[in-house]
Amino acid sequence: MRLLTIALALGAVAVGLYAVFVGDQEAEALVAKLAVSAVLGGLATYTASQSGRHRHREERARALQLELTAFAPFIEPLDPAQKEEERVIMTRRTFGRAISPETPADEPGPSPVSLLLRRQQKQLDEGGE
Fold it and tell me: What is the pLDDT of residues 27-37, one digit of tens each?
C-alpha cells in the first residue's frame, strides 16, 4: 500500500507539472490536466489512510499475539480457581465484554438504530399511559 501511495502521489505531481509546463496551454486543457492531478492526489490520500489503518491493525495483532503467548506461563503458578478467573478476565478483555446475566441476549446493542427504537418505544409507553 505504501508503494502504491507513493506512486499515486508522484503521478499527481508529474501530471500537475506536465499540465503547467508542457503541452496545450488552453484553459480547458489546463483545467482537465489539473483535475486528473487532483484525482490522483485524492487516490494517494485514500491509499495512505488505508495503509495507516492496515499498519495499525498489524501492530495490534502482534501485541495480542504476544499477550496470548505469554499468558499461559504467566498464570501457571496460580491455583486453579485463580487461573480460571484470570482466563475469564483475559477472554473478556480480548474478545469484548461478555453478556451479563442482567442483560437479555436479544436486547439490541448501542447502535443508532437501537437508540431510535428505544426512543420510539419510550414515546409509545408515555403516550399509552
Answer: 888 888 888 88
| Percent of residues, the chain, with pLDDT higher than 90 | 4
| Of 48, 39, 32, 49, the residue nearest 11 (C-alpha) | 39
DSSP labels for the chain? -HHHHHHHHHHHHHHHHHHHHSS--SHHHHHHHHHHHHHHHHHHHHHHHHHHHHHHHHHHHHHHHHHHHHHHHHHTTS-HHHHHHHHHHHHHHHH-PPPPTTS-TTS--SSHHHHHHHHHHHHHHHHH-
> CA 86 to CA 82: how far, in whole Å?
6
